[in-house]
Amino acid sequence: MRKLTAFAAAFAAAVVFTGCTEIAQEPGKSYAGKEDSKPYAGDEFKGDKGKWEATLAQRSKGQDDYARIVSEKK
Amino acid sequence: MARMKFICDAERCIECNGCVTACKSEHEVPWGVNRRRLVTVNDGLPGERSISVACMHCTDAPCMAVCPVDCFYKTEEGVVLHDKDLCIGCGYCFYACPFGAPQFPQAGAFGLRGKMDKCTFCAGGPEENNTAEEYRKYGRNRLAEGKLPACAEMCSTKALLAGDADVLTRIYKTRVVTRGKGEEIWGWSMAYGGSGMLADQPGAKA
Q1: Assigned domain for A60 exists
Q2: Which CATH architecture has domain B4-205?
Q3: Model ipTM?
């Protein structure tokens, strides 16, 4: 009886914890095409990912016209 | 870096078609193919809104799931791209896409479909960066030049934003707080799952 209770408890716990599993967002399919080169691999950034990210972040922030107005007023 | 995304602020879009023209011009997109287009609802009525629509580079992209030749891939930055050398122009991706992003040039008589063409987030495709081959197949690779997509950078009212999701949500938050309305981010819940409200986005909490 004790074994059965333990088994039932373990089964119930497994069912409950299944709900906590995060479903993978990436599709499980493989890509059959050619390998793409990294955007920071060219002559412009010479493989420097940090520099590339900083450049893009700067560009992204440039879209904030409220921040631009404040900085132009100063 | 988080993920590259587009936001179209429907409160700001004035339907000028600048984004559409910028995209066409930047990539020399063939006649009959529109990687980006404008959709207007309630045209001519009070409450009219326009939205600039292109590939949203979905988290769980349906086009990737249905492609029979597996020609789609996703870059580290979350940009959904495809290999035109593999594409057979079957059109499954067009039927799967909730945004109508995949476009097909006419490749012959009787409406024969060519290889699929869509927004690349100005990130080119699976060819050497900024080569003539990449330009011919996929258009210009602005991301490799450290630039954002041409459509967003061209937008005169900055209705269309592109870039890192965290930065975009912060910009959008400032706008919503300042004008006191327009919290809904068009297309986000469909493209990335979860909520399409600004308050529920991770970047908006900061």
Answers
A1: yes
A2: 2-Layer Sandwich (3.30)
A3: 0.85
